[in-house]
Batch of 2 targets.
Target 1
Amino acid sequence: MADLRAADISIVAAEGGLVDSERTDSAVSWAAIAAGTFANAALTLMLMAFGTGMGFSSISPWASSGVSATTFSIGTGLYLIVTAMLASTVGGYLAGRLRTRWVAVHTDEVFFRDTAHGFMTWACAAVLSAALLGAAATAIVSGASAGLAQRSPNEGSPVAIYVDDLFRPAAGTAAGQSAAQNAADPAARAAASRLLLKSFRDRADLAPADRTYLAQLVTARTGVSQADADKRVNDVLTQAKSDLDKARGAAAKLALWLTAAMLIGALAASLAAIEGGQLRDRRG
C-alpha cells in the first residue's frame, strides 16, 4: 500500500509538477518586481520634469495672464493622477510580463499573485521615489522659482513682508530719511519678526502686551499716531492669518490629490500586472 501511494505521488509530480512546484518555487518573482519598480520610478521622474516644463508646477505672477489658483490646483492634481497612473501601469505590466511562469497553479491563485506583484511594484516604487528621488523631484518642481529665492537671510524670512508692511513710512516722510531710519534700527525689525513668528508657530493671537509693544515700535519708527499704529498692526495680523489659512488649505488639497494619485497608481499597477501575466502565460 505504501509503495502504491509513493507511486501515485511520483506520477502526479511527473505529470503536473504540482508537488515539486509547491515545495521549491517561490510565489514572488523579485527580479520582475525590481524591474517594474525602477521603470515606475524613472517614468515618474520624467513625467514630473515634463509637467514642470508644461507649467503644471508654476503659476504666472501677473494678474492678466496665467491660470487662477483654483485652476492651478485642479490641473496639478489631475496631472499627479495621470503621472501615477501611467508610471504605475508600465511598472506593473513589466512585473507581470517578466515574472516566472507558475506551473500547475490554480487560475485564481495566479490572479492573486499577479495582483500582488503589481501592488508590490507600486509600493516599492513609492518608497524608492520618496527615499532616493525626493531631492531630484524637489529640485525639478521648485526649479522655476529658484531665481526668486536669491535673497539675504533677513529678506528670506517668512515674516519679512509683514514686517515691511508694519514699518512702511508714513505719508510725507522723506524716502532717504526713512531708509536711514530703517537701516539704523534693525533691532526693532528683529523684535517684530520674533513676535510674529511666535504667533504663527503657536497658531495663537498675540498677547495684549505684545500687541501694544508692536504698535509702539510702529509709532516710533514710522511717525504714525498710536491709533493708526494699532490699526496697522491689526490689519497686518489679519492679512497674515488669511495667508496662513490659504497656505494650509492648499497643503491639505495637495495631500488629498496625492492620496488619490497613489490609490489610482496602486490600482493601475495591479491591473497592468494581471494583464501582463495573462499575456505571458498565453504566449509561454
Target 2
Amino acid sequence: MTTSGTLYVVATPIGNLDDASARSIEVLRGADVIACEDTRTSGTLLSRYGISGRTVALHEHNERAAAAGLIEELRRGLDVALVSDAGTPALSDPGAHFVAEAHKAGIRVSPVPGPSAAAAAFSAAGFPAPGFLFAGFLPATGSARTRAIEALDVPWPVVLYEAPHRIAKTLAQLAERLGAAREALIARELTKKFEELARLPLGAAGAWLAASPHRLQGEFVIVLAAGERKQAPAVQAGQVLDILLGEHSPSDAARIAARITGMPKKALYRMALARAK
C-alpha cells in the first residue's frame, strides 16, 4: 500500500533572497515536485540555492486543474512543495484551493513558515495592539471597493497590500474615509535594495508619495493605526440585550453585550436588570 506524500506550504523571501530559512531550502531540495505561482520567478530562488527539482505552475488561472493533478501525485507518495512568488502561499496569493483539496483527500499538509510582508510591516509600524486585521488587497473598483474601505474603520490596526498604480488613490480614499489624522505606516519594497518606510498621518501620505517619482514604484504594504472604538447607540445595545436575556442571566448578558457593542459593562448591566424585570 502506497503512503501518501506530504504537501509542504513553503514561505519564501519577499525580496531579499538571504531571508530563505535553512528549513525551507531543505524542504525544497527534498520535494519531488515544486508547485510555483510563476516558475520563472521561483527559478531565481531555486537557482540561488542550487535546487533543480521538477517545477510546475500553479497560479490563480489554473489552480483547480493543477491542484487535481498534484493531488494524484501526492496520493502516489510524492512530496510536493507549494510556493508563491514571494511570501506565504494562500495569503493574498494562490494556493488555498490546493491546500483545501489536500485536506479533503486526507493528505498531510505541513507549513514551513517564513517571511511575510504583513508581519514584517506590522512589526515595523509600532502600533501597540494584541493583533491586527489583515485585509489583503482591496477590490480594484466600484461599490465593492467602497464597502471594503468602509469596513477598515475598526478599533484595531489594519494591514493591507496595494499595487503601485493604485497606491495614491488608495491613500487618498483612506484619508477621506478614515480621517486625515489617522496614523499609518507606508512600507515600500520591503527587504529589497530600495526599501522605504514612512510613518505619518494619512493626510500627509499624498505629499510623501509625490516627493519622489520612485515612490510610485514597487510593492506596498499599508498599516493603519487602530481606529477609535465607537459606542453603539443605546437602542442597538438594548436590542442586543433583549436577545441575550432570552438565554443568559443579566450579568452574563451584560458581559457579552459589552464585547459586542463596546459599551461599558456596568451601564449594560443596569440596563439588563431593568429589562429583566
